Amino acid sequence: MARRTEVVDCDVLIIGGGFGGCGAAYESRFWGRDLRIVVVEKANIERSGAVAHGLSAINCYMGMRWNENQPEDHVRYARGDLMGLVREDLVYDIARHVDSTVHKFEEWGLPIMKHPDTGHYLREGRWQIMIHGESYKPIVAEAAAKAASKVYNRIMVTHLLLDRHHPDRVAGAVGFHVRDGTFYVFRAKAVIVAAGGASHIYRPRAIGEGTGRTWYAPWSSASAYGLLIEAGAKMIQMENRIVLARFKDGYGPVGAWFLLLKAYATNAYGERYEEARFDEIKALVGKYADIKPMPTCLRNHAMIEEMKAGRGPIFMHTQECLDTPEKEEIGWEDFLDMTVGQAVVWASQNIDPKERASELITSEPYVMGSHATCSGAWASGPEDCAPRDWQWGYNRMTTIEGLFGAGDTIGGSAHKFSSGSFTEGRIAGKSAVRYLRDLNGAGPAVDEARLRQLAEAIFKPLEEYRVGRNEFVAGTVSPNYLLPLHGLQRLEKLMDEYVGGYSTFYLTNEPLLDRGLELLRMLREDLDHLGAEDLHQLQRAWELRHRVLTAEAVVRHTRFREETRWPGYYYRADHPRLDDDAWHVFVASRYDAAADAWQLEKLPVHHLIS
Amino acid sequence: MPTYVDMTRCDGCGECVNICPSDIMHIDPVYRRAYNIEPNFCWECYSCVKACPQHAIDVRGYADFAPLGHKVRVLREKEKGVISWKIRYRDGRVKEFAFPIRTTPWGSIAAPSSYDAPPADELQSQLLAHEPDALKVAALPALPARS
Amino acid sequence: MFVSNPFSLLAEAFSPMFMQAYVVLMVAAVVAGVLFDMRHKRSAEFFARRRESARAAAQRELGAAAIATIAVETLVVDVMAAGEFDKWQRRLSHLLTAYGFIIYLVTTVVMVFGYASDPETPWAWTALWHLGALMVLAGGSWFFFALRADVAQEARAPLRLRQADIFIVGLLASSAFALVWHAAQMLDNGAGVTMLLFGLYLFSTTLLFVTVPWSKFAHMFYKPAAAFQKRLEAASGASDLPRPAEISHIRR
Questions:
Q1: Residue C226 and residue B8: Cβ atoms within 8 Å?
Q2: pTM assigned to the model
Q3: For residues C97 and C171, is the Cβ–Cβ distance under 8 A?
Q4: Is the torsion defined by CA of A7, A12, A15, A18 positive or negative?
Q5: Is 70 exceeded by the pLDDT of residue B1?
Q6: Burial classification of residue C127, based on how many CB atoms lie within 10 Å of its CB (0-12 exposed, 13-18 middle, 19 or more buried)
Q7: Which CATH number fits domain B3-100: 3.40.980.10, 3.40.30.10, 3.30.70.20, 3.40.50.720?
Q8: Would you state the pLDDT for residue B147?
């Protein structure tokens, strides 16, 4: 079928226009005034990505100017929260730069709340500051738009391109325009992937319409991982899926409530269960139970155990902390700036937080890299502090030459959130410019035959639908093709049942994982028979493909790590203990697409900071 | 809590189609007005609600857990840098809030290329743009050298 | 061409009585179409309900003078100046198409009822008829090819027609065929081609008026009513939108 093709040549290609991508655009322009810098975004950069609504807090800010924190402290905090396993060099690197990012945000017009006495940024907690962040994304997108040579909106990137002569070097990317179906080929000397992590790979708690209200954006379709895994980049910690304890159904944020407004949670009988379960947690994870603040996964564990013991619902006693109008405003703004859906839950269920408590619950699992979790690509660290085996020349470059990552894409750098993801984008942006300057000679070469192959593969679901539709009268049931939603539901169900979803209380074991892998492999085969009715469905089809590939990495990593490292995120019933002797390591994988083969290994965890 | 579009207010301008991060606001073939084609992929991010010049879009909480009769309406006044909310509960009580959204004029961010170009050798350093000044400390922190 | 009356030329083949009966029939078709649409969809019932709940939610009573003022505002700002449109291109194309259509219709009625047998129709009417049709073509094709949301935002091919396009296509076809038919009349009033073009003009014009229950035609009546209702709600405090903010946070 004849299709319009558009070829775009650039120096730096930034895939994903979220916080990571916007940071990369800004910084690469600062260092590369003459470069052609292109941002490609699946939606509209003004409101794309996980910060579409806005945010009510910046969760990564040191406050070095006021001696509030030092970067080393942040490393200790992130390391503790991840039960010892983070890339301390990457975390340190973000922590030492993030303050300049936040100060620029304020200069650009982001309203940051100030402490009435000191005039310092109003702290929510030790690492978090409160913002009036409804327009956080449009402000940051403005900075990126002023930096990039061009921002392409509504183009979904489906594959990375590798150099035809050097399969370990990136050459660009391909995708399609979601509105008019043009096939796009981006040829680039350096590529920065700052796409989304994975929502919707596990069955959500909701049903029907409610499946839209995932904690992490539904349009975070695992493209960061789907693109990199398929290209053969080394990935780490894909087993480190995150579960969040949030307000039930709306998944509204709890940080400001706990830290700033000093609310507390109890079981249905008013008992503070977290303290009561301390000894049991200590028996499970030893010294890690003494980490302060208590790691996120362990706090989840306490809540999960409490619910299993039949003492739910779990409540947050908001009614005990809203004693002033200012506090009530903060409580509501916390939702309205970033999760309006929770305000809708309150309004619909007649819950006034001043008068009654609200339910909390642990969510379905997600896989991403910028929160209290750090799945993602294995990346080279900063030259001045990364151990030798953690760097190979360019900061934030993956194991594929010329391919950089930022934000959810990069593994091991936990607790960066929005400001840290933008900062990591900046780091990758500068690094990419350095790489370009060092490159002598022409850019990489793209294989024309591969392009033709990809063009056919990308649009195949449209053909499958058109032709296959002739078999039956009407409706959605086809014996020949799968609708993207069908594939998504099958994925979510199998991950939930076999790989530790909410319905199993996050429990799995080797026989379950093996069975899950078997079903997942059949789903992967069925993906060749996806049927897309239109370009919107084609976008859903490719989002599914990225999710399924990511899910396979999750299953394999979960199986490889014979340990329960993060109880409260997931449990290996057949290896219920934390085992520092054998498993104080990163689990890494590499996928060979040509052979359809996976290789898993352990990589050392170094502690740079005491 | 997915979005829905008011038949009498929508004039089919397509701003919502343009902004939706989920690609789910599209134009209906009978009325040429907007509608939500996939409520199960609606995050209720309110991007379309805020972008609609006619205030034609509103949200009805997700049917699987939000009882009827509520309203959470918003007015984003970009040029004033304010967002206002009016929340009506199912039981009729109303709460109103207004918050700042920006302190500088739209379009006023200085492009990175408007700053003096950094010296060539700084490309090799660990400093990012505007540092160390923008850190508001004397120097970029570093770990002691490792062997 | 611009100073001649197509209907007086047509009167050489058809009696003006038939033309006048046709106009009356088309008016009846529009009225019937709108009433049928409202009844079938029970939209009148729905909007009556909505008016009731707006009245119940009103925070202040609006006196007759206030309501009259609002009605005038609606008429002048929303209807006559198409003030609700946010983007100037949509507003301008709407004004061209809407006023063009009104001028085209009114001049048609005047020429059919007043001057159908008169070869000396005042040139103001005939010129306005042409102007009206040209305005519809200008504004309408600008809208059809460039501004329609499904074309502009969804990259839909303009000629892939769907139900929502019946009205605009009918408008464009009727006015285009009207002009082409009249041009053909000027060249050779009795020719087969001229009759064919008249047939196309008649067909597309008829379709425009009889498809009211399925097209967006009736929205030209609904929209002003909705605009009036919206102004009333804002004035009476019944609107559920937040009040505009009093202060600005932007430091200029």
A1: yes
A2: 0.97
A3: yes
A4: negative
A5: no
A6: middle
A7: 3.30.70.20
A8: 44
